[in-house]
Amino acid sequence: MNRNETSAFSPELETYLQEAEPSQLKELSEWLRIPSVSTLPEHKEDVERAAAWLAQKMTSIGLDNVQIIPTGGHPIVYADWLHAGTGAPTVLVYGHYDVQPVDPLEMWTSPPFEPAVRGDDLFARGASDDKGQLLAHVAAVEALLATSGNLPVNVKFLVEGEEEVGSGALTAFVPAETGKLAADVCVISDTHILSPEQPLIIYGLRGVWAGEVTVRGPSQDLHSGMFGGAVHNPNQAMCALLARLHDDAGRVAVPGFYDDVQSLSSQEREALAQVPYGDEQLLRESGAPAVWGEQGYTVTERIGARPTLEINGMWGGFVGEGFKTVIPAEAHAKVSCRLVPEQPSSAIGPMIERYLQQIAPDTVEVEVRTLQHAPATVVPLDVPEMQAGARAYARIFGVNPVFSREGGSIPIATIVQESLNVPILFMGFGLPDDNLHAPNEKLHLPNFYRGIRVGIALMEELVSS
Ligand code: BES
Ligand code: MN
Ligand code: MN
After folding, report:
1. Which residue has the least CA distance to atom 8 on ligand 1?
2. Whose CA is nearest to atom 13 of ligand 1?
3. Position in ligand 1 atom list of the atom nearest CA 202
4. pLDDT tens across 195-223, in order?
5. What does the pLDDT look like over 84-125, one tens digit per residue?
């Protein structure tokens, strides 16, 4: 890591931090070896082991009230340290220890649960999303407790094992435990910065609707030679329906979809235009042959500030090797939308269903089932905690953070913000090319070590905010 930056901390803490890097990496690697894939039932015990690993780590560094809280789904891990004294603020750190599935496995350069360092990067599922980013805060607390026995603020950790599957248990837990979780600010490191040199504070995340479209035709699969041409093929009907979800200008064609969408103010457009991200970086990071999207908007606006609709998966009929001449009885598609503030997430499913049923021919039946929905998150920019966050980044990176809106979703964020009445600081340590949810997920290690330092600086800055 670059040591030219001016030292932000006392010589004792500096020495500690430099010497601790190998063990911080070793511990993160150990945690990453546990395949805590929340969506796959066969990994249920691994998810529990990952929770236990974290709880054990929290206990060992001197946190109090370390709890593995059982739920109907995967456990919640809670821990706190509340000895900062009267008047000191309380910081709630949220994160998740569950990870996404690893397929397609053959695309990984090294096995997803055998963490491997190549160059400055640590490759493993969960390295960036979100074990590495969460552990940076645990290591920050550890560093201060180990060197001074004290923290400048009270700290509570709230870590779930269901973020990647919709935060079911936490959605009930947070509003029910507002006393236990009471805080002055919530810090979430589950996002990315712009580059290793350019920190980013996110002030808005998009909401999400996710569901499944089913198109039904004949009552059972049919021989395509005996019935083809005389029975409407559900796969074909599905393609025609899905093709009409967007118009030629890249806009979502579902009536009502944009009804509650506020147009971007010229002020906000100017601010987003300052974010140093554009077509070129998008093409480089994605490997796509060309940029695509809603006409009239920059890629930063399309990703962070405009709603979208994606087809995430399609199946139906025969998809094995070779061929089978069949007309399937049903065709299926997974569809999701990213939503901006004011769009009611609960209205999206019915809206899509109404439209598809209206445009569907009477040769098939269409059904839309909602699996998950959550509104967008907007955090206030004009609170002192935001300034404290900006100062913490600036102290460690040597440059001020930029502010932007991001396209991903953290459904629990809005619930935390509203139930606990706290501002959220989205201060990530990942990078846009960390391959989240994809093969070869990685964490840029200099970001990990800087993230630990930002965690310490943030605790200090929050005292004076
Ligand atoms: N950490 C991501 C969210 C994220 C990614 C925010 C990149 C900003 C930039 C989180 O783990 C995630 O993947 N969330 C899901 C939520 C979904 C399962 C409801 C998402 O955004 O798809
Ligand atoms: Mn995440
Ligand atoms: Mn994720």
Report:
1. 408
2. 164
3. 8
4. 999 999 999 999 999 999 999 999 999 99
5. 988 999 999 999 999 999 999 999 999 999 999 999 999 999
Provide the token pair at 220: 């059972």
Model-level pTM? Answer: 0.93
Say if residues 144 and 459 touch (Cβ distance below 8 Å).
Answer: yes
Query: Per the domain annotation, does 299 fall within a domain?
Result: no
- As given in the structure block, the two tokens for residue 360 are 């569907």
Q: How many CA atoms lie within 13 A of 200 on its CB side?
A: 25
Q: What is the Cα gyration radius of the chain?
A: 24
Residues 6+ apart with CB under 8 A from 345: 207, 208, 209, 339, 373, 374, 375
Q: Which ligand is nearest to the CA of 338?
A: 1
Specify the CATH number for the domain of residue 229. 3.30.70.360
183 occurs within a structural domain? yes
Backbone conformation region of residue 324, classed left if phi is above 0, alpha if psi is from -120 to 50, else beta: beta
Is 176 within 8 Å of 95 (Cβ atoms)?
A: no
- Contact criterion met (CB below 8 Å) for 416 and 182: no
**Counting atoms of ligand 1 from 1, which one is nearest the CA of 374?**
19
C-alpha torsion angle, residues 154, 160, 166, 168 (rounded to 10): -90
Q: Are the C-beta atoms of 307 and 338 separated by less than 8 Å?
A: yes
Is residue 291, in this structure, part of any structural domain at all?
no
Cα distance between residue 10 and residue 412, in whole Å = 36
* Domains identified in the chain, total number: 2
Q: Which amino acid residue places its CA nearest to atom 16 of ligand 1?
A: 409
| Burial degree of 253 (CB within 10 A; 0-12, 13-18, 19+) | middle
Nearest CA to ligand 1 atom 1: 190
Per DSSP, the three-state class of 154 is strand
Residue 172, classed as helix, strand or coil, is helix
Q: Could you say which residues of the chain have pLDDT below 50? A: 1-4
Give the 3-state DSSP-derived string for 299-344, with helices as H, strands as E and coil as C: HHHHHHCCCEEEEEEEECCCCCCCCCCEECCEEEEEEEEEECCCCC
- For residues 294 and 317, give the distance between their C-alpha atoms in angstroms, rounded to a whole number: 32
Q: How far apart are CA 305 and CA 302, in angstroms?
A: 6
Domain boundary among 315, 350, 374: 374
List ligand 1's pocket residues with C-beta within 6 A. Answer: 129-130, 163-164, 166, 190-192, 205, 208, 372, 406, 408-411, 436
